[in-house]
Design goal:
The complex is a heterodimer of chains A (about 400) and B (about 325). With about 400 residues, chain A is of the alpha/beta class. Chain A has twelve helices and eight strands. Chain A has two domains: about 300 residues, Rossmann fold; about 40 residues, no CATH class. In chain A, about 40% of the residues lie in helices and about 10% in strands. Chain B has two domains: about 180 residues, Thiamin diphosphate (ThDP)-binding fold, Pyr/PP domains (Rossmann fold, 3-Layer(aba) Sandwich), CATH 3.40.50; about 130 residues, 3-Layer(aba) Sandwich (Rossmann fold), CATH 3.40.50.920. In chain B, strands 3-2-4-5-7-6-12 form a seven-stranded mixed beta sheet, sandwiched between helices. A five-stranded mixed beta sheet of chain B has the order 9-11-10-13-14, sandwiched between helices. A two-stranded antiparallel sheet of chain B has the order 1-8. In chain B, helix 1 packs parallel to helix 7, helix 3 packs parallel to helix 4 and helix 9 packs across helix 10. Classes of the chains: A alpha/beta (about 400), B alpha/beta (about 325). At the A-B interface, helix 12 of A face helix 3, helix 11 and helix 12 of B. Bound molecules: thiamine diphosphate. Thiamine diphosphate sits at the interface of chains A and B.
């Protein structure tokens, strides 16, 4: 419909023509078969052994992180955690296909993308314990990471709000003439929010170089995707908005890597948005506050365990002779030790001094905030035992 | 009478309403089979079927727009917003649509049967986005009622009254009390009047006013003050809008002093509205300035949650300052 007259290119029919769901059927890119062997017809992405190892190690790292932190939550050492087990390939391989100058806007289950960029165990732990070293000054719950240095926008809890923001950020990159894109991650649940529709439409119309990356993992807390949407998933919505769209096997590192490389290329070349729908499964609970046994079966989870993205990629790497099993086990063990060590260190670090409570509300605190801080400090001095985190420090 | 926590009382009220009127429907994110993230809607789908208790897609504007339309048709929707922090995507629907539905049609159409339930408030290590107390935003909209219970008994009686009230009601549940507050709740159907405050404790020197989970805080401060010989009258406002100006003013006329406590930030919080009205009505009775003990004018923090909270100690100090003015 290039013509400015929007009727010019519409075909005509002369009986009522109802277009039914099912006419478009968007296929899914798969490079590795579930058993880790290369699909006979598959086109292999251009990937080096070094890149493959970094992807594998990052996936194994976040798996260790998830295990440790879920345990730490059970022990009451942190208040909350959210695991990405089962979805590592989607977030790690997509991040691997980007460049460091590309902005990442994430939902909350993308610790893999952040770890790939180089967020350290110390930084993860400082965030989780909201201590004074934490980059966001301990203001948000665990898992709300953010790092300006790594081009990873600080996460906000309200779902979907980052989607139109990503369109805006990408438009800014384009106007500044940067060789960069924005990637925006979200779940299929968040794709029901009004912000999703607004964000995609803005990006399409304003030609923003943004990659919308939907992790379709089957559930939004307890709500299965059949109760979340009708039609052909999230991919069909990309097409509806006039956005180039790719559906990919989210448990297949090579497929996600290829798709994201292609998406980045398209976004830069055409200065346009691209939507990727990664079909995957949340093996973990939604969060440490959730109990999935009340809404899904062990059989269902079991069938997805067989599609484990980490094992699948490992098998392929072994078949290439790219993996030394002993070295790999040593890496995992060393990762465990490192996470544990940083966890113990981070939990000893105090929270930010009380002065910071009024910082960053505005660029500089106005009079009323200064007055409230002064009053608060006087009060804390009167009852030091009642405010142990901040009393006696200034 | 049965002993229930606040979640069980809410659940019991919903069952009572659904049994009483088949037009009552309960929906929201995860409220169906799972029973809601806090389990306030447990077993409703199993008992009343998927037609009357269901999961919605994850869209608050969708939930409230849908509920408003459904109510205008004559059904009785009870829509859940999973956390009050997430009501803002539905703000336009509530402010511009739900609240103005009856007025703009000259009374021809109404969505008065709608009740919106939402957990609110802090004290649960929820940080910025799982702790807010947004009642003042909604008290600023003509056309909505805003109701907040403080214990299981109130929760059931006020929720039933909200569902049956012929105005859209925002029913805010203090989530820090969901399991912590346990008490006797009648099994039978009963209602507590909307728009009425509850005098929790009589006193003569100062009136302490709060709602929801903060009532517990002012009660604690009152106990400390009593030890110093200060007699406090403790009032739970219960309905934020319309609010019971009569009960509050007659108490202030007796004690001569008023302290209002809420968790939401101080500036433009609902305490400001109360203070302005009370000084207008009770100016000659006041022996000291009306005092507000509220959250700070910052977003709700995580690591500094305890410092942010208008707790019993801050309230106790403020009581002494006000009495010794
Ligand atoms: C606006 C808003 N509404 C509700 C919530 C509560 N909530 C947090 S996560 C979640 C489910 C999200 O599901 P999805 O987007 O599919 O991501 P997944 O958890 O499956 O990775 C909900 C309802 C929220 N954070 N924000």
């Amino acid at each position: 419909m290039k013509d400015r007259n929007h009727l010019a290119n519409i075909g005509l029919v002369h009986q009522v023509n109802v277009i039914e769901n099912g006419l478009i059927d968007i296929p899914m890119l798969q490079v590795l078969q579930p058993d880790g062997t290369l699909h006979p017809q598959a086109e292999l992405p251009n990937i080096t052994q070094q890149a493959a190892l970094k992807i594998l190690h990052t996936m194994q790292y976040v798996r260790v992180l998830d295990e440790r932190m879920v345990a730490a939550q059970r022990q009451g050492r942190i208040s909350f955690y959210l695991a990405c087990t089962g979805e590592e390939a989607s977030t790690v391989a997509s991040a691997a296909a980007l460049e460091p100058q590309d902005m990442i806007m994430s939902q909350y289950r993308e610790q893999g993308a952040l770890a790939y960029r180089g967020f350290t165990s110390k930084e993860f732990m400082d965030q989780m314990f909201s201590n004074q070293n934490e980059l966001n000054k301990g203001r948000q719950m665990p898992i709300h990471y953010g790092s300006k240095a790594l081009n990873f926008m600080t996460i906000s809890s309200p779902l979907g709000t980052q989607i139109p923001q990503a369109s805006g950020y990408a438009y800014g990159q384009k106007m500044a003439g940067l060789e960069a894109v924005t990637i925006c991650y979200f779940g299929e649940g968040a794709a029901s929010e009004g912000d999703f529709h607004a964000g995609l439409n803005m990006a399409a119309v304003l030609n923003c170089p943004v990659i919308f990356f939907c992790r379709n993992n089957g559930y939004a807390i307890s709500t299965p995707s059949e109760e979340q949407f009708k039609g052909d998933g999230i991919a069909s919505r990309g097409l509806g908005y006039g956005i180039r769209t790719i559906r990919v096997d989210g448990n297949d590192v090579l497929a996600v890597y290829s798709a994201t490389q292609k998406a980045r290329e398209l976004a830069l070349e055409h200065q346009c948005p691209v939507l990727i729908e990664a079909m995957t499964y949340r093996l973990a609970a939604h969060s440490t506050s959730d109990d999935p046994t009340s809404y899904r079966s062990k059989d269902e989870e079991g069938s997805w365990l067989l599609k484990d993205p980490v094992a699948r990629f490992k098998t392929w790497m072994q078949s290439k002779g790219w993996l030394d099993e002993e070295q790999n086990l040593a890496f995992i063990e060393q990762t465990r030790q490192e996470v544990l060590k940083e966890l113990k260190l981070a939990e000893q670090v105090p929270v930010c001094p009380i002065e910071q409570i009024i910082e960053d509300v505005y660029d500089t605190p106005p009079w009323h905030l200064k007055a409230q801080l002064a009053e608060l400090k006087t009060h804390i001095d009167m009852y030091p035992e009642a405010y142990p985190k901040t009393s006696g420090r200034s | 009478m049965a002993t229930m926590n606040m979640l069980q009382a809410v659940n019991n009220a919903l069952i009572t309403a659904m049994n009483d009127d088949e037009k009552v429907m309960v929906f929201g994110e995860d409220v169906g089979h799972f029973g809601g993230v806090f389990r306030a809607t447990s077993n409703l789908q199993q008992t009343f079927g998927k037609g009357r208790c269901f999961n919605t897609p994850l869209t608050e504007q969708g939930i409230i727009g849908f509920a408003t339309g459904l109510a205008s048709q004559g059904s009785v929707p009870v829509a859940e917003i999973q956390f009050a922090d997430y009501i803002f995507p539905a703000f336009d629907q509530i402010v511009n649509e739900t609240a103005k539905f009856r007025y703009r049609s000259g009374g021809q159409f109404s969505c008065g049967t709608l009740t919106i339930r939402t957990p609110y408030g802090g004290g649960i290590s929820g940080g910025l986005y799982h702790s807010q107390s947004p009642e003042a935003f909604f008290a600023h909209i003509p056309g909505m009622k805003v109701v907040i219970p403080r214990n299981p008994y109130q929760a059931k009686g006020l929720l039933l009254a909200s569902i049956r009230d012929d105005n859209p009601v925002l029913f805010m549940e203090p989530k820090r009390l969901y399991r912590a507050s346990v008490g006797e709740v009648p099994e039978e159907d009963y209602q507590l009047a909307l728009g009425k405050a509850d005098i929790v404790k009589q006193g003569t020197d100062i009136t302490l006013l709060a709602w929801g989970a903060q009532v517990e805080i002012i009660e604690k401060a009152a106990a400390m003050a009593e030890e110093q010989g200060i007699s406090c009258e403790v009032i739970d406002l219960q309905s934020i809008l319309p609010w019971d100006i009569e009960t509050v003013c007659s108490s202030v006329e007796k004690t001569g002093r008023l302290l209002i406590n809420h968790e939401a930030p101080l500036t433009a919080g609902f305490a400001s509205e109360i203070a302005a009205s009370v000084q207008e009505k009770c100016f000659l009775y006041l022996e000291s300035p009306i005092c507000r003990v509220c959250g700070l004018d910052t977003p709700y923090p995580l690591a500094h949650e305890k410092e942010y909270m208008p707790d019993h100690l801050k309230t106790f100090e403020a009581i002494k300052r006000t009495v010794n003015f």
